[in-house]
Amino acid sequence: MKVASALKAQSELLAKSSELPATPMRIASLLLAHTLECEPSKLVLHSQNELSKEQEFEFKQNIKSFIKGTPIEYITQRVSFYSHEFTVLPDVLIPRPETELLVEKVANALKYKNAPKICEIGVGSGVISVILALLLPKAKITATDISQIALKNAKINADKFNVSLNLIQTSLMTGVSENGEKFDAIVSNPPYIAKDYALDKWVLSEPSAALFGGDRGDELLLEIIDLAAARGVPLLACEMGYDQKASLEKALDKNGYKASFYQDLAGFDRGFLAFKKEKI
């Protein structure tokens, strides 16, 4: 079977599925490019090339896996973030484009700070900490996660980009610098989805512990705010749910933070940077 015919056949098969996260042709192109180890944009140059039996079989199997609910990123184990390609392993949260906003805002807030000490809570695949390390070369970054597979994934990406991260397996910041060391910033993209919020089968294939923040969704965020205040951290930056601004703004103010909330490209409230208020 030729490349063009394979793409057409599998796109038509995908089109029978409802609520796809992308167009059938886009999905088929990404998966066939993965099989052929090329960029999707190059497929048109090979449209009349014949697939080997092994390539055709792998492509069809990956299409079947996707239809059953396996995200493309888990099949390819690749994800693009901040114009870089990262490894993402199954059972680790897949980075989203909107999280690039969080990284950029934190980097801008700390760019004049000499060797800032940063702690990321919930490192996942490591994309936030790795990009911050690239943007702030003098930063000292500690990153925690309760998941061993997430820490393994973060180590793979840190090594790939030759950056140094202090990776610790723990819940939030338990046991981290409890000897009095101060952090200049805490950054986190924690689970913030309410437990009864409807998600598609591809998102539900991701680890539930990295998605759901509790009955309301903001429970873990509230814990992180309390933690940052208790440790006297000057800057707290988090991603959040679109409907959580009111509760988080109240908690931040109560804990002595002045928050600046930002929106994603779709216009939804998506995160905040909160600075500790100066004492009068």
Total separate domains? 2
Could you name the CATH topology of the largest domain? Rossmann fold
Strand order of the biggest β-sheet: 5-4-3-6-9-11-10
What is the share of helical residues?
25-40%
Structural class: alpha/beta
CATH superfamily of the largest domain: Vaccinia Virus protein VP39
Name of the level-1 CATH class of the largest domain? Alpha Beta
Largest sheet: 7 strands, mixed
For the CA atoms, what is the radius of gyration?
A: 21 Å
How far apart the termini lie comes to 74 Å
Q: Which stretches are poorly predicted, pLDDT < 50 over at least 5 residues?
A: none
Which quaternary structure do these chains form?
single chain
Architecture overview:
The protein has 280 residues and is an alpha/beta fold. It folds into 2 domains: 66 residues; 187 residues, Rossmann fold (3-Layer(aba) Sandwich), CATH 3.40.50. The protein is built from 9 helices and 11 strands. The protein has a 7-stranded mixed β-sheet with strand order 5-4-3-6-9-11-10, with helices on both faces. Helix 1 packs across helix 2, helix 2 crosses helix 3 and helix 5 packs parallel to helix 6. The longest helix has 16 residues. The radius of gyration is 21 Å and the shape is elongated. The model has no long low-confidence stretch (mean pLDDT 95).
